[in-house]
Design brief:
- The complex is a heterodimer of chains A (about 450) and B (about 525).
- Chain A has ten helices and 25 strands.
- With about 450 residues, chain A is an alpha/beta fold.
- Chain A starts with a strand and ends in a 17-residue tail after the last helix.
- Among the domains of chain B are: about 80 residues, no CATH class; about 80 residues, 2-Layer Sandwich (Alpha-Beta Plaits).
- The chains are: A alpha/beta (about 450), B mainly alpha (about 525).
- Chain A: Its cofactor is FAD.
């Protein structure tokens, strides 16, 4: 059986590797972006001179041949689902028995005139990074539109070259659409410490042309003019499925899939950023644009294709990021506002660089999730506690069990516990008294 | 602050330039009295003197001509012995360095104190200013290594190659022709006399420079990692052991005319530990000598396995060891240059265990000779083996390649490919230890920072992205992988042995119904 995978990102490659682990099917991975799988998350480090591009490739080049995973650098123009054939931009025809669509995303456009000017771009692909390298040559000032995960990484990248950076954010603080107010405020302060100008409650109004086809500045919707020679659009991404439009494949924003990652056409599957769940689970988004979810989907789909048909189940939600120098880890479904049946507890270190939040069910005290800023926490421990619906009092009392900071680090679990039991004395009773042994 | 930083650098570079010029400076004149005071062996004196008559009271413009003439005189003398087949009389003692030192005249000799301050003290201060400026320029908590691959010196540029050539040349001269460095040795004579009661050898100079470099570059580490207690404690520890145990204590023991010993140096890294002259030294030094012998054996037999069991080999390699100390301070800017390929891992395993085997065989042979008095074992000359080991491993591998290749192959070339003690520690760490680097569930994003900055060339990411803990013989526990990880995925820790290999991904994946 010949399995063709379009896209060599984490989703497609995880599927390919896991199919190979379980079977001898012929596997072909097609990508127009790069010859070999690389970690998109590391592109920023290449720009900052912390890594070379080759370091972003998790497997050495011999790996693919040894594991009989064929790679093809080509752009798939269209798919003939009836004849089970792909057409590439250079006229090649490739047949398949099973097709996995793992084409990822493309950056969202703002839809203003001037988006085609030189110096206006987004950052998603390897090609975008190369373009940014060209575009940021003698830039003094840059504006980033969008205060999200990519926005802050872009700001960090440009600051490493001493470019003056402004971020336009729709919200009143950094990533406030996802982060609760306190966390968003803390990160906003940290952004200011790094001499990045975060302009809140502001949207892009107009892009200014310098007369020679390059960007020379922007005007916000409020009418303020900001000069810049580089304008970066990072307002999110959308599924990269243009080449599938007007075909028999059912698509909405992304390729529509069921919980088995199957599309409406037999033997055609989709996963990762480009897939959209027809019936997303409660509280879950229909499109999951995360490294981790693509990885898990790849594992699940490999099982299905190799004859162990199984649903994709994400398990307890988790995610992480790094905001300049502050690491962020989140476990469980942590919303901007606690849900109606939830209570929330927030603790912030006096340095303003570390914070902790726990949400739990009001009635039962069952743990719903954690946010950590500047504190590392053990994933399996958080996962177990949340899935067990463990009592928050117990969790707080035993927080030390999950602390994942480096040895000799200053620990904060006691202060957090003191503050928690001061605010929620009712839970003090549930504390276990058996102490951890010192060597644990 | 930027200006201050650059001033510091300029001061250092000026001092360093002067330092580099010194071996080419000064004039030389040897008197027969000086000759007699240096060549203490009367037979040597009698044999050498006739051939050196022309050198006495002759002025030399530099030490190259002086050493060339001395070399000729020595060769001539030895040739005469060889012609007569008087093999035992051939002179092997190195008089070149003390002769060069004693006959030095002119600028260097007259300004020895001033030059000492310029070359060692002011240059160090320059370096310190350069790094202290980072306290203000580099944010606390910045764990990144920005621009590392954009700067020639840290990315195998021309400057890196020049620097490597300098280091290699330094090691070759140090081991093979120290007389050319006589002016450098002269500078540390006053200090040596204060500390040890005798004139400096090239090894005193080396030990002194080693400590100085570790102190200055160690301060850089402390500033760079001031947010991380692990790095702070580790760096202070490694500097302390170098300065106190490798430098001060042996020198003070020498001053007290006791057997000198680096009490933290363990066989087989300390490959001369079981050499006959060393054993005789210890056995003839009374209680202290016996204690030193016992301590050395205790470290090999009990110290290493017990400590590695509880803490991993890091207790030695990145907390105590002098080679590791230099690598972690002076070598830190080059850590990312280590090769991460599977191929180099294969080479590493053959090489490092090969050297361990070589060290064991060599030591067995040497001990055989010590106990039986017979100098051949299985038809092989035991002195021959140990000479080969000293030259190939002690000088070429540990010195010239181990440190000289810092700017080209990373800072742990010796520790990774050559150190027999690391091999021994590694075997224990791999099979019987509580130490591991724990991977945090499914949080890895395969970015590759950990692998890039692993000085031992471990492909950390290969484990982390599969949810596997990193349990590798070579890991020295420097902790940098955990620090550069942008997602908090890695943690060095000691824990129960039974779940060491547990897959962390299995712990968090939702159980799928088939």
């Amino acid at each position: 059986m010949k399995i063709v995978i379009i896209g060599n990102g984490i989703g497609g490659i995880t599927a390919a590797r896991n199919i190979r682990k379980q079977s001898d099917h012929e596997i072909l991975v097609i990508s127009a972006e790069s010859d070999y799988f690389f970690s998109r998350t590391a592109l920023m480090y290449v720009y900052m001179g912390q890594m070379k591009f080759e370091h972003t490739q998790p497997y050495e080049n011999w790996f693919w041949e040894k594991n009989r995973i064929s790679l093809l650098n080509a752009y798939v123009k269209s798919v003939d689902f009836e004849k089970q054939t792909l057409h590439t931009a250079n006229g090649q025809k490739i047949s398949y028995d099973k097709l996995i669509i793992a084409t990822g995303s493309v950056p969202k456009k703002i839809g203003l005139s001037g988006e085609g000017l030189k110096g206006v771009q987004s950052l998603y692909s390897k090609q975008d990074l190369e373009l940014l390298e060209q575009n940021s040559g003698d830039v003094k000032e840059a504006v980033i539109v969008g205060g999200g995960l990519i926005g802050i990484e872009l700001a960090e990248m440009l600051r490493s070259r001493n470019i003056k950076v402004s971020i336009l954010s729709r919200e009143n603080a950094y990533w406030n659409s996802v982060l609760p107010q306190e966390e968003a405020q803390m990160i906003s302060r940290h952004i200011a410490e790094h001499h990045i100008n975060l302009i809140a409650n502001t949207e892009l109004g107009k892009i200014l042309d310098d007369g020679s086809g390059s960007v020379k500045g922007i005007i916000t919707k409020k009418g303020a003019e900001i000069p810049c020679q580089l304008l970066l659009i990072s307002i999110g991404v959308q599924p990269n499925i243009n080449f599938l439009k007007n075909s028999a494949l059912a698509i909405n924003k992304g390729v529509l899939v069921n919980e088995f990652l199957e599309t409406n056409i037999t033997n055609v599957y989709a996963l990762g950023d480009c897939a959209e769940f027809e019936n997303p689970k409660l509280l879950h988004p229909p499109i999951e644009q995360l490294w981790y979810t693509a990885q898990m989907q790849g594992e699940a789909l490999a099982n299905t294709i190799c004859g162990h048909r199984q649903t994709y189940r994400r398990g307890v939600w988790f995610n992480s990021a790094k905001f300049l120098d502050i690491e962020y880890q989140t476990y469980g479904c942590m919303f901007k506002q606690p849900l109606a049946d939830e209570e929330t507890f927030y603790w912030e270190h006096s340095s303003g660089r570390k914070a902790f939040r726990a949400n739990f069910e009001k009635e039962s005290g069952a743990l719903r999730g954690f946010n950590f800023l500047g504190i590392r926490f053990n994933h399996p421990v958080a996962n177990r506690w949340i899935s067990e619906k463990r009592n928050i009092g117990l969790c707080i009392a035993e927080l030390k069990k999950g602390v994942f900071d480096a040895e000799f680090s200053k620990q904060h679990h006691r202060k957090i516990a003191d503050e928690f039991f001061r605010q929620f004395p009712a839970y003090a009773k549930t504390q276990k008294t058996n102490k951890l042994k010192f060597w644990m | 602050m930027k200006l201050v930083k650059n001033i510091g650098l300029a001061v250092f570079l000026c001092c360093f330039a002067i330092f580099l010029c010194l071996p080419f400076m000064g004039t030389y004149r040897l008197t027969s009295q000086q000759f007699e005071s240096v060549v203490s062996d009367s037979a040597h004196r009698a044999a050498l003197a006739p051939n050196m008559q022309a050198m006495f009271d002759k002025s030399y413009a530099n030490n190259f001509n002086f050493l060339a003439d001395y070399g000729q005189a020595l060769d001539k003398t030895n040739q005469q012995f060889k012609d007569k087949e008087a093999w035992v009389k051939v002179i092997h003692t190195d008089y070149a360095l003390p002769l060069a030192k004693i006959s030095a005249r002119g600028f260097v000799k007259e300004h020895i104190q001033t030059l000492f301050y310029i070359c060692f003290i002011i240059s160090s201060l320059g370096g310190l200013i350069y790094f202290i400026a980072d306290l203000f320029l580099q944010k606390k908590g910045d764990t990144q290594h920005k621009q590392v691959f954009k700067s020639g010196i840290t990315n195998r540029g021309i400057s890196a190659i020049v620097f490597a050539v300098f280091l290699i040349a330094f090691y070759i001269l140090l081991y093979q022709a120290p007389a050319y460095l006589s002016n450098w040795v002269l500078m540390v004579d006053p200090l040596s006399i204060k500390l040890t009661g005798s004139q400096a050898s090239q090894w005193f100079l080396y030990g002194f420079m080693y400590c100085l470099v570790m102190l200055v570059m160690g301060l850089k580490m402390l500033i760079k990692h001031r947010h991380s207690n692990y790095q702070l404690v580790r760096t202070v520890s490694v500097i302390f052991f170098q300065v106190a145990f490798a430098f001060m204590i042996p020198n003070i023991l020498t001053l007290l005319q006791l057997p000198s010993a680096d009490l933290k140096n363990i066989w087989p890294l300390d490959y001369t530990f079981f050499f006959d002259y060393h054993l005789n030294d210890l056995l003839s030094a009374g209680l202290l000598g016996y204690w030193m012998l016992g301590w050395g054996i205790f470290l090999i037999v009990v110290g290493v396995p017990v400590m590695v069991y509880f803490f991993g080999k890091r207790w030695y390699c990145s907390w105590v060891c002098g080679c590791g100390g230099l690598a972690e301070t002076f070598g830190d800017p080059f850590r990312h240059l280590s090769d991460k390929s599977i191929k180099s891992w294969k080479i590493e395993r053959y090489l490092v265990h090969g050297v361990l085997l070589f060290a064991v065989v060599m030591t067995v042979a040497v001990l055989y000779t010590f106990f039986t008095g017979s100098s051949t074992l299985l038809g092989i000359n035991t002195y021959g083996i140990r000479q080969v080991y000293a030259f190939a491993i002690g000088f070429i591998f540990a010195g010239a390649v181990g440190t000289g290749f810092y700017p080209l192959m990373g800072n742990r070339v010796w520790c990774r490919f050559g150190c027999p003690l690391a091999a021994y520690l590694g075997i224990v760490q791999r099979f019987k230890s509580r130490y591991r680097i724990t991977t945090n569930g499914g949080q890895c994003i395969s970015c590759g920072n950990c692998s890039t900055y692993c000085e031992m060339g471990i492909d950390v990411r290969a484990y982390a992205q599969r949810g596997e803990n990193i349990i590798r013989a070579s890991c020295v526990g420097c902790g940098i992988c955990a620090e550069v990880c942008p997602r908090g995925v890695l943690k060095l820790e000691n824990g129960p042995e039974n779940n060491r290999f547990e897959n962390q991904l299995n712990l968090i994946r939702a159980k799928n119904e088939v």
